[in-house]
Amino acid sequence: xxxxxxxxxxxxxxxxxxxxxxxxxxxxxxxxxxxxxxxxxxxxxxxxxxxxxxxxxxxxxxxxxxxxxxxxxxxxxxxxxxxxxxxxxxxxxxxxxxxxxxxxxxxxxxxxxxxxxxxxxxxxxxxxxxxxxxxxxxxxxxxxxxxxxxxxxxxxxxxxxxxxxxxxxxxxxxxxxxxxxxxxxxxxxxxxxxxxxxxxxxxxxxxxxxxxxxxxxxxxxxxxxxxxxxxxxxxxxxxxxxxxxxxxxxxxxxxxxxxxxxxxxxxxxxxxxxxxxxxxxxxxxxxxxxxxxxxxxxxxxxxxxxxxxxxxxxxxxxxxxxxxxxxxxxxxxxxxxxxxxxxxxxxxxxxxxxxxxxxxxxxxxxxxxxxxxxxxxxxxxxxxxxxxxxxxxxxxxxxxxxxxxxxxxxxxxx
Length: 414
What we know:
It is a single chain. This protein is mainly alpha-helical. It has three domains: 3-120, no CATH class; 132-351, no CATH class; 358-412, no CATH class. It has 18 helices and four strands. The strands form two sheets. The protein has a two-stranded antiparallel ribbon with strand order 1-2. A two-stranded antiparallel sheet has the order 3-4. Helix 1 (3-18) runs antiparallel to helix 4 (75-87) and helix 11 (229-236) packs across helix 12 (243-254). The longest helix has 16 residues, at 3-18. The chain is globular, with a radius of gyration of 24 Å. 41% of the residues are buried.
């Protein structure tokens, strides 16, 4: 994303907001384009809210002089916002005028809005190197240029995180199942940014890349973003029981930060402390009863030591530095209260969970709405992640989910 693109987008949003004030719980009277999420109790709603006619009049008075419909979902506002969010520019005068002529024609403006979104989803601003999707991956990839291999290598090249960004971008675009973030057995290369072009690599091509440039985990042991060379290097490093790796995966893809005591599912009899790290201490056991069973499936995958490979007997090399008992740590574990036999199973269970669907939608919601979902946002937010999981909804396709997101009041009520 260039400096000029970011500047244009900022100026566009300043102009977008200049047309009128933001009304919090204003009545939504925009010709059936949106509805109010009222209080749980009808009696409470009647007592708390003005009568419909009075509310509508108040809202219309507040909208007077504004270029936007501040009473609810504004299609023209949404159209401009889609261009800014996904293309990094305002619509041209001709594009804006053409869309404005569709005012009041619900099916026609929705088709036009959808078309604009489809175009922008293929733009370098959205899908290119250092574009929006790339940046959404930043917290998950945790890039460190000093140890990057491949293009633009650092001073100590250990692994190439371009594989991670390319895989993330590929799975989050097109008609692809976003669950493959945690289940993919393939890797992806970027062949162009004009337009952004991502293609699967063949195993023969992967085999030519060795050492820091390689992806050395066997196909049947791969679990998408969880088993890339880079993910092991920056998280597992030299550890026997990769708790940091499991915690990073749990936070990045299921939205639970164990350091904040989120997503705790204590397992009876845990932690066992196979590596003699003192995790059974009273101050530690509460979190480690969840974290350690999450971590065991990662323990057969090497980080820096072992060069990002898979080794069934990996723990044998830690008996002198950690504990002779470390070899007893299982390759199986417990995730979200469910047994998983290995890391491949970990990825499968995680990616089919509600936690995963919520985190996918959460990341895009925060990027596009500009805030975390509030209590008032819950009906729309919940509808999005439930649709993501539904075969009759967006069916784990991010781009389909985004078409639903841009039609929410949270996204386009000025």
